[in-house]
Structure formats: C-alpha cells, structure tokens
Amino acid sequence: MGEGMIIGIIDSGIWPDHPSFSGKGMPKPPAKWKGHCDFKTKFCNNKLIGAKSFLRAGAEEQKHIPPFDTGSHGTHTASTAAGAFVKNISVFGNAMGLASGMAPRAHIAVYRVCRNEISCEQPDILRAIEEAVRDGCDVLSISLGGYSTPFYDDPISIGGFTASHKGVFVSTAAGNEGPLPFTLSNDAPWLLTVAASTINRRFVSTVKLGNGLQLDGESVYQPDINIWMPKMFPLVYLGKARDIKSGQCLKLDRKQVNGKIVICDRGGSDRIQKGLQVSDAGGVGMILVNYKEDGYDTIQDKYEVLPASNINYFDGEKLKKYIRSTNNPVATLIFKGVVMDNIRSPSIANFSSRGPSKQNSFILKPDITGPGVNILAGVPPVKAKEKTYYFDLMSGTSMACPHLSGIAALIKKAHPTWSPAAIKSAIMTTAYWQSLDRKPMTNGNHLQANAYDMGAGHVDPSKALNPGLVYDIHIKEYVPYLCGLGYSDDKIRVITHPLPPVKCAKTKAIPQEQLNYPSMVVPLSTGNAVIYRTVTNVGHKKDSYKAKINVPRGFSATVIPETLNFTRVYEKKTFKIVFKWVGGNKVNSFGDLNWISKRHVVRSPIVLHLAAETLA
What residues does the Subtilisin-like protease fibronectin type-III domain cover (predicted)? Predict the structure, then answer.
C-alpha cells in the first residue's frame, strides 16, 4: 500500500487537520527524507511529513504565506494519491463508506505554489519541483498546467527532467481544454500525461416531465423525496434564441420564477452560484443543462441550496422541446440516491484535453487515462445545512493525475530499481481500452475514443505491477531525441542541466518516433516506415513472446522478429516493425502491437500518420 514511499504534491497547499492525513499507525519517514514542515503549529506527522510554501506577499514579497489550502484543490489531490483510510465518510449523506487514497500507507509532502486554484507562477513551480527532488520524494503529483509550450520554456518539463534524472516519477494532468485536438499540456516524454475518464457511480436525480418523459441527471444533494413526489411544479426557461446569457440564470425576475423549477444553461457563473440565484428568486428547483461540447457527460455537484439536477446537452434539447410544446409545462425531480449502473464507463470525459502534442507530434500523448469525473476525496471542511463534511466531489484531469501518482508509488515500492520510464511503460502497456460493457471506450458523445483521447487506455493498477516487458529509456537517451527536435545546444542545456553540456553537432540525433516509447506514432507520408524498439524482460527469467499486430485495412505491418525468447530477467531484445500504406484514404488510423506470452499481454497503441497537415 505504498509503505516507505514519499509522494510530493505540488499544488495549492493542504488542509493538514484532515482525517485523510492522520498519522495514526504510520511509520516514521524513511531515512532519505530531508524535508520539513512550514506550519507554525504541529500539524505534520508520520503521514504528512512535509509542507512548504513558495509564495510570498506584501509590497516587497517579504511575508511568508503558509502552505494551507485556501481552496480545496491541493487537499483533494493529496488525499486521492495517498490519503489514509477514513471510515464512515459521505457527501451530504450519500456514498457512505470507507475512503482512502491509491497508496494509503505512503507519506505525503506538500509544496504550495498556487495562491488559488488558477494562480500558479512558473518560477514557484520549478523551485518546488527541484526542492521536492532534493527532499527525497519518490513520486511527484502535479495537477497543474496550461498550454503546450516548448520544453525549454516549461517549468514542469524542465523540473520533470531533473526529477527523472534523479529517479523520481512525475505524473501530470493533461488539461481540461477538450474535446478539440492539440489542447493538452505537460507533453514532454519524460512526464506521464494523464487524461480523465468517467466512473460507474452516479448520484441520480431524474427529471420527470408532464408528458411522462424521464431524463436522468445527477446531483449530490438528495432531499427527502416525500417533499416532491408526486407533486408537479411549473417549469420555466427564460432563454432566448439570440441571447445566450438569457438562459444562464445570471439575473432572474422573482415574478417569473417564484414557485417554479427553473431551467438554467451552463456558463456565465458556476453551478452553485446559479442555484443561489434560483433560490433567492423563489425558485423551488433547478435543472442545469450542460454545454453541447460536454456531450453526454454530467458533473455531480452539491446544489444544497435547492433540489436540482444536472442533465446532459442532448436531454436538455428534449427538455426545451417539451417546454415549447405546451402552454403549461410542469415537472418534478425524483431523487434515486447512489446508482452503480453506468456500463458505458469508463468513458473519456469530453473536457479532457486531447492530443496530438504540439511539441512532439510523433510521441503519442496523452499517455494514459485515469478516473477524473466526480471523484470523491478529501477537502477542507464544507458546512452544509445540518453538519460539516470533509469529503466532496471534484472533476478534471487534476483528479486523474493523483490516481496515477499513487499507482506509480505502489509500482516503485514493488520494484524499487525500476526507472521512471520503466514504471511508465508498465502503466501504459497493461492498460485496458474497453468499458464495462466490453465494448471499446467512448467519449462524451458516445463515439469511439482513439489514442489521442485516451493514450494507451485506462490504467489497470493490478496488472501494472507485473507487466512482463517494459520499454525502458535511460535519461541520456533523451538528448539525441531533443537534438532531433531541432533545439539549440543552449536550449537543450536549459532542460538537461543535470547532465553534461550537450553538443548536437557531435550527437547522432534521432527522430521523435524512434525514442524507445511504449506507444508509437508512425510517419507514413512517404508510404512506408520502419520503427525500432527495445524491450526488457521484467517477468519470468524464461519466457517467450509472440507478436500480434493489428492495423486497419489499407496498411500492412510486419514485426521482425515475430518471436522474442528470453532466458533471464532484465534481458533486452530489439525488434523492428516495417509499416506500409497499401492504398485507401489518406487519413490517420489506429492500431496496436501486442507481445503475447502465456502470462502476459504487452500492448502498445499505434497511430498510423498519413495526413501531414493534421499535425503541427
């Protein structure tokens, strides 16, 4: 469960007096730990072993700002990665049970770099990463980002390289700018770039219309159904065709909404603020309709100010059609509590940022997908009408990232000599790409997801502990790759400064696609390509793997050799794949390579890239 591992959380700070960070039963920090706790009071313990802030305030920034989490982001991510076991938790009386992080016995060290959830300065981020490495962290969890920038201008890429050089694994969030392509950040190959998926738990709040139609939505706040059923309430929507803001419930006239259920479109203000607007104007309930870009995705939120339901865009269109069809529209809300029935899960959240990478388009990004929608984890105290809660739901790739951070800590505990690249490979090559219905994973529009949406697929923690083979990368192997990007020696030095100075003129550069990565983007603009890879046996000392490669019609692929026979642990084998385009439409396509033994399936996603204009 992560004993002896230290996970560094680079975020908005932490609420230290939270049950998820209790030191009860935790061993002392390992001898390698060199950090300390900045809190004036003794909040730190054997679970929360370090807390530092890199923020300053005042006219000359002389006043030190403590590492307290003034929002909830850092507390949520820290408890997701390594929160201790906490009994009888709930969110507004729902989802009662036992909570823990992915690595509940790991230690936590916190580095505050954000004044709030959106104000995080680049110099602070870089200083925090370097400090966490010096302190002795094993894994860094960085749920921060923005836009893709050249690696020599990106503090997470620069700091992440230093961390990888020291054997520290770095997990990062892909970003929340989806579903359009080229929107992800944190895309350096030495970082794990994490996309977000849905989970199969829902807090169902069904909208029942006067015509009998029922539309399933979600809301964490589940009031007593006896107050509502079977009574119908007048239904009102104030949106106008040529005025987007009119339907967003930014301003409401009490005469128009008093005693009614109000339909509100997303946008203009946050969800809770909309609920307050409706309640203050006398509305008895709210139906929040998602953006078109969100597709079928819905976000559970604590609309404790009034009964509510968040429905998807397509059901919102049905709702508005009903409004237009009658002079006396009515509706009620049916609260069904927690339902575990979403067989389409996991699916890729529409907000999750997509590849290709703007910086290295022939390195597949994102790398992996983890749970990131409606994630239950610890937060600073939330005061509700009747009691105080210490757990809440949040969504984003920020929530997916710490899942992978915790999993990486578990793998490193099991395999302490593995490099960050080997751990990444184990995570990627054991991922699955099907939902609970055993069909290919979809996105928020119920369309099949591809590798630019989900990377290698959804993480499978158990299988990642025993991958069979890994695609390892020594830190020095990134130098010829960076030379191949066309960076100058000075710019590469900014990134690789722990290593000796680089001279690309004396270095044999390699194209991006030849980096020994666990996934492949194959350039086929000339009609054919050869990709080389090397795998390392980390399974049984004697094992044999046979290649099975899947490519769509219009392509051919030959693996040479097609069988790999190993006689010892850590033995390496190199193979090549000869790809050809043999006809058909010139569009990017997707396939995979599977090395199959009696015990393992080692899968690598493949992008067959034909259309040059589609990549930056």
Answer: 514-607
> Is 11 annotated in the active site?
yes
Is 73 annotated in the active site? yes
Can you tell me the distance from the alpha carbon of 263 to that of 249, in angstroms, rounded to the nearest whole number? 8
Phi, psi of 379 (to 5 degrees): -145, 165
Place of tokens 């090395």: 595
Q: Which amino acid is at 76?
A: H
398 is catalytic: yes
User: Under CATH, what is the fold of the domain 469-473+516-614?
Assistant: Immunoglobulin-like (2.60.40)
Average pLDDT over residues 131-159: 95
Decide if pLDDT at 611 tops 80. no
User: What is the three-class DSSP state of 555?
Assistant: strand
Q: Which residue in this structure is represented by tokens 């090549």?
A: 576
Distance CA 426, CA 428 (A): 6
How far apart, in Å, are the Cα atoms of 206 and each of 170, 283, 332, 365? 41, 18, 8, 37
Question: Across the chain, how many H-helices and E-strands are there?
Answer: 12, 29
Q: What is the mean pLDDT of residues 134-138?
A: 98
* Maximum Cα interatomic distance, the chain, rounded to a whole number of Å: 80
Question: Which architecture does CATH list for 6-198+349-464?
Answer: 3-Layer(aba) Sandwich (3.40)
Cβ–Cβ < 8 Å for 470, 535: yes
What pLDDT band is residue 225 in, cutting at 50, 70 and 90?
low
Per the CB < 8 A criterion, the answer to whether 285 and 223 are in contact is: no
Q: Which of 148, 398, 405, 597 is catalytic?
A: 398
3-state secondary structure 83-120: CCCEEEEEECCEEEEEECCCCCCCEEEEEECECCCCCE
pLDDT, tens digit, 9 for 90 and up, residues 163-201: 999 999 999 999 999 999 999 999 999 999 999 999 999
Q: What is the pTM of this model?
A: 0.93
What confidence score (pLDDT) does residue 389 get?
A: 84
* Tokens standing for residue 356: 């290709």
Task: Tell me the residue type at 106.
Answer: A
Please give the pLDDT value at position 616: 38
In the predicted structure, residue 538 carries a pLDDT above the cut 80: yes
SS3 414: helix
Q: Which helix (H) or strand (E) holds 574?
A: strand 572-581
* Domain spans of the chain, in order of start: 6-198+349-464, 201-340, 469-473+516-614
Q: What is the mean pLDDT of the chain?
A: 91
φ and ψ at residue 32, rounded to 5 degrees:
-70, -15
The amino acid at 81: A
Q: Which residues of 97-131 are buried (b: 16+ CB within 10 A; e: fewer)?
A: eebbbbbbbbbbbbbbbbbebeebebebbbbbbbb
Beta bridge partners of 578: 530, 558
Mean pLDDT of the 22-37 span: 95
Scored b (16 or more CB within 10 A) or e, 384-411 reads eeeeebbbbbbbbbbbbbbbbbbbbbbb
pLDDT-derived band at 391 (thresholds 50, 70, 90) equals very high
Catalytic residue among 18, 72, 73, 315: 73
Record: fold of 201-340: Glucose Oxidase; domain 1 (3.50.30)
